Amino acid sequence: MTKYIGKSVKRVEDKRFITGQGKYTDDIKMPGMVYAYILRSPYAHATVNSINIDAAKSAEGVVAIYTGADIPEAIAGVPCGWQVNFKNGDIMKEPPHPLLVRKKVRHVGDGVAIIIADTRANAKDASELVDVDYDLHDAVTDPKAAAQPGAPLVHADAPNNIAFDWQLGNPKEEVAAALASAAHVTELDFVNQRMIPNAMEPRSAIGHYDTAYDKYTLYTSTQNPHLTRLLMCAFVLGLPEHKVRVVGPDVGGGFGSKIFHYIEEALVVWCSKQIELPIKWTCDRSEAFLTDAHGRDHVTNAKMGFDADGKIVALQANTFANMGAYLSTFAPAVPTYLHGTLLQGLYTTPKINVDVTATFTHTNAVDAYRGAGRPEATFLLERLIDLAALEMEMDPTELRFKNFIPAFDGVEQEGYVTQVALQYDSGNYAPVLTRALEMVGYEAFREEQKNQKGDKLLGIGFSTYVEACGIAPSAVVGALGARAGLFESAQVRVQPTGKVSVYTGSHSHGQGHETTFAQVVADRMGIPLEDVEIIHGDSDSVAFGMGTYGSRSLAVGGSAIVKSIDKVLEKGAKIAAHLLEASTDDLDYAEGKWTVKGTDKSVGFGDVSLTAYVPHNYPEGLEPGLDFSSFYDPANFTYPFGAHVAIVEIDKETGFTKLKRFIAVDDVGNVINPMIVDGQIHGGLAQGIGQAMLEGAIYDETGQLINGSYMDYCMPRADDFPSFEVDRTVTPCPHNPLGVKGAGEAGCIGSTPAVVNAVIDALWKGGHKVKDVKMPMTPERVWTAMQG
Amino acid sequence: MANKISVTVNGKQYTGEVESRTLLSDYLREDLSLTGTHIGCDTSSCGACTIHIDGKAVKSCTMLAVQADGCEVTTVEGLATNGNLHPMQESFKEEHGLQCGFCTPGMMMTATDFLKTNPNPSEQEIREALEGNFCRCTGYHNIVRSIQLAAKKMSEAV
Amino acid sequence: MIPNSFDYKKATSVDEAISLLGDDVQILGGGHSLIPTLKLRLNAPGTLVDISKIESLKVIRDNENSITIGGGATHASIAADAALSEHAPMMTQAAKEIGDIQVRNFGTIGGSMAHADPAADWPAVLLACDANVVIQGKGGKREVDIDQFFKGFYETALADGEIITAVRIPKMASNRHSVYVKFKQPASRFAIVGCAVGIEMEGGVVKSARIGMTGVGESAYRAMNVEKALVGQALTAESIEAAVKNVTEGAEVMSDHYASQKYRTHLAHVYVKRALKMLM
Ligand SMILES: Cc1cc2nc3c(=O)[nH]c(=O)nc-3n(C[C@H](O)[C@H](O)[C@H](O)COP(=O)(O)OP(=O)(O)OC[C@H]3O[C@@H](n4cnc5c(N)ncnc54)[C@H](O)[C@@H]3O)c2cc1C
Ligand code: FES
Ligand code: FES
């Protein structure tokens, strides 16, 4: 019955994009629209003494200017959506993140005033006439330095800049004891550097207050329209939710950075009410660098102990996580429940403790960036295990095979219970590495490496990972501090003619839901793909949604759709039974029709649909219509896994490192559209490799972002990569109806350590036994490593 | 300062007034509502705004609208002819060369210019030709495949 | 990303352009250095005089002993020019190393020389080619030897009100060899080190050498001591190694987060060595 599922169906959404007809927020124009420019702090830490807007106010085209003082006290700022408590039970420090600062700026880019004018140019011109008087203060940007006594304070009520501290796993003493008696301990200090998401579409928001209907509309480049509406209405502006519509139209990539509720969204909505005109704000790339929530930024010390046989006996991980100046929507969850909980990896490590200190600094907020916490966990584990192999003179793949958790399918065998609070759903780890080694031609490579002479060094690096997607169920994440549920909703509305409109709370911004979801619906309902339309992103048409992030859409959103389909077919069967004068038990449903078993009597889906809406000849007591909604709250996370291998070549004279090959074997459970899944993996790989080799935010000690443009921040380009070699194994998820696990982040989670490990391998083979090369591994850093 | 300009965009003649400082990208998007041309940066780096001026690829954010006076402009909206997709467009769809679609117009405009001078490129040449076009979604893998397919289609067509 | 306001004037001839220049007026060539600075409001001229439509500035002319490249010739037209590829192949090679397809289609050699970005490619290449820069202003035409052209950080011999109308490249005799190599800054792809070498061989030894370096110091410069050390030597691994020792002598070596002074100095040595070895 799978005409579509498992096939590389070409994307239905492509047509509008390849013809230039995609509608992104900045493409939307409304009559009377005015334009906002946000004046931002050029300093990381300063007191605002005064703001003089007189000259700006009378500048050409200016409609209104607001500063922090104009915003009512009741509007405290944008909230954080996840609460993590201190080890001692105290609740985390959660200083307000105001829409516009009132007294103090806390990072370069903090909003100081909003200037609204008839054109963008006039708004920008007027902004130059606003005169702000600042008193400058010292800043701190490093998450570890921030926690030291005497560091400049970001918020007066967060002593030592600590937002919270947290730990998980076995008692520290037990881990310490196991490490003390280990035959070998590998210890590593490293930085998982700050990343700038750089979705290609800069953020944009349009606020429109409609006086006729007393209704607000927000168009915004979001991954998450409903949650944005909820947060903005309930926690920021105090607006009645039923009078607010939030639309996430076409969105040009997100990678996490467009999950969060941003100040600009609330600002354009609030300002639009004041002036009763639609207002558009679109950020420049320079602003995006300063204000799109950043990712990663962990400073870590980790120790992994092994017995004489190479079995891992214990892991201790201590991390300082940079929150930036304010707690962004999901920020507290990233270094804790999305990072600490993943430190079992795919190994049988019996003792694990993870300790995290989250600090405020005078930098832009840090939150989820593709992978969110899991890349940091994978990096920690995979760097340690490859390094341990070098130190113990063992093969890094053998060391992994020795430590893998044995296969379990979650049906016959129980899910694997980790030391760090999770139960994995299903896993079969050895085959992905075995397959990757085949693809590499491992033995031949090691031969080639041994014989390598001349001016190049060759290296190979591995990374085997397990990650957690579709974070759930709501009750559990609620207990862990989430201030929202993590279910998904879906409505399947069968039209009288048998065409199907599906309303999903997931949001597609490149993932191809309009195709993948339609494949699921068409197959499950036995109807042509063309008869299915997927509708998403508009809070006025979709009942509710939790949006798209954490590789959750198909596993959670897709499952909600399946639930609604089941309801449609159940009711359809009743109607069909009535029309066929049979009992529902005697009917089979296939290829879009109900057939009385063992006969050729049948009725088609279209006829049943029409009957549901023209219920003349109709089952007694049955409601008309064929339209069902469902909410799906998963039983557990899903746990994709995989093996990534990088091969690099280093120019000995310059340190220039070329990625020669990259092999990725991922297991994301069942696959609905292989073409789309491969595409997701490719994109993730580029971002993960980008972190290893090219990207990373640099703040100087005064809190200036010194590489906040594409001339300095290295965006990966086509010629930075070889063609990727990808394959997969399939271990279905046992607890959702599609057996899918999620593919959006896997590429980004597994790849980074593989590349660093490859460089370290090359360096060791060249006689340079360094433990680490800081990311991004620029030519200079690699060259420096060879000078020792 | 307002300047009178007359440009042919996708075969259609437009006459109007523009401020000297108006970038061609803004003119296309705001004045002509041709929003397929995207703005992804402010340093002339990303290529999302790439169009053709008299057949040559240019980042339209790095040209003044007034400079296009008297020129033939082609944007992504003009790539298809008589309702038939350009082979480049077909190939991006067939090889899944796009995800969010934001970089796609610029990618296709650069690639069509590139294939004019190099109709039979190697993979490495294609990768180098995309130096001025960023994509955050695809890892470029399928963009390269798309351009390879387009090259094939276009050379078979002649 | 919106420039400050300015007036725009389109010139149709060099003379007209010159007549339009004056206080607070800037020339708009290909725009690929100027417009980015306007967009970021790092620069706000009152008037731009557009010389990009002046046909005579785009011409690349094949003379008897030299090739004259119009100041308005684009990097792409230089890359595609047959005479240059035959008589000054380093020009062709370097043109292809600049920016990307779109930048090469519109950026010009005159604009690049006038801008004199310390990491731009043309300055090193023209130094090694022994080019002349043809300049025209209200006072008439003058030709500046490339050795006299670069004056410092974004500074040149160009005076206010002057236009670079051409650069003149001597044709290479058959005993001349040249090459341009570039180590790119990963983000901007400008040169961290760009090294252009032109040598003249006679009787198996170097008769003369010109080495242009860019990206290293505050402006492009000739590595004179390397040039001197090479003269009279056969090109061997050893002679090259010995000659390149002080390639950064006299340069104020720059430092940034991609290349510290130490590393940049090292790269300068590696790249000049590589360039010379390619000519062995
Ligand atoms: C994304 C990108 C990447 C780039 N990469 C590189 C690279 O790798 N290597 C490299 O070398 N360059 C690079 N460039 C710069 C590019 O080569 C520019 O085209 C060049 O530097 C300036 O030429 P232009 O004609 O565009 O000059 P404009 O931008 O028009 O002008 C630059 C300056 O020169 C003046 N000027 C222009 N023409 C003349 C003239 N004929 N006479 C006198 N003054 C004049 C202007 O007034 C202005 O001050 C890059 C540019 C971009 C946008
Ligand atoms: S918007 Fe033109 S290059 Fe980025
Ligand atoms: S498809 Fe999203 S940036 Fe390229």
Please name the fourth-level CATH homologous superfamily of the largest domain in chain A: Aldehyde oxidase/xanthine dehydrogenase, molybdopterin binding domain
- Series of secondary-structure elements of chain B, N-terminal to C-terminal: EEHEEEHHHH
Q: What best-fitting shape of chain A do the alpha-carbon axes yield?
A: globular
> DSSP helix count of chain A?
19
Task: Give a verbal description of the structure.
The complex is a heterotrimer of chains A (788), B (158) and C (280). Chain A is α+β, with helices and mostly antiparallel strands and 788 residues long. Chain A has three domains: 14-19 and 30-137 and 203-282, Aldehyde oxidase/xanthine dehydrogenase, a/b hammerhead (Aldehyde Oxidoreductase, domain 3, Alpha-Beta Complex); 295-471 and 636-785, Aldehyde Oxidoreductase, domain 4; 487-632, 2-Layer Sandwich (Aldehyde Oxidoreductase, domain 4). The longest helix of chain A has 28 residues, at 553-580. Chain B has 158 residues and is α+β, with helices and mostly antiparallel strands. Chain B has two domains: 2-78, Beta-grasp domain (Ubiquitin-like (UB roll)); 87-157, DNA polymerase, domain 1. Chain B has helices at 24-31, 87-94, 104-117, 123-129, 141-157, and strands at residues 2-9, 12-19, 50-53, 56-59, 72-74. In chain B, a hairpin with a 2-residue loop joins strand 3 and strand 4. The termini of chain B are far apart. In chain B, 66% of the residues are buried. Chain C is α+β, with helices and mostly antiparallel strands and 280 residues long. Chain C folds into three domains: 7-50, Uridine Diphospho-n-acetylenolpyruvylglucosamine Reductase, domain 2 (2-Layer Sandwich); 55-170, Uridine Diphospho-n-acetylenolpyruvylglucosamine Reductase, domain 3, CATH 3.30.465; 175-278, CO dehydrogenase flavoprotein, C-terminal domain (Enolase-like, domain 1, 2-Layer Sandwich). Chain C has helices at residues 14-20, 34-39, 75-80, 82-87, 89-97, 101-106, 109-115, 122-129, 224-230, 237-243, 261-278; strands at 7-10, 25-28, 47-50, 60-62, 66-70, 132-137, 140-145, 150-152, 155-156, 163-170, 176-184, 191-202, 205-214, 221-222. A five-stranded antiparallel beta sheet of chain C has the order 4-5-10-6-7. Chain C is globular. In chain C, 54% of the residues are buried. At the A-B interface, helix 1 and helix 17 of A face helix 2, helix 3, helix 4 and helix 5 of B. The structure holds flavin-adenine dinucleotide and FE2/S2 (inorganic) cluster (FES) (2 copies).
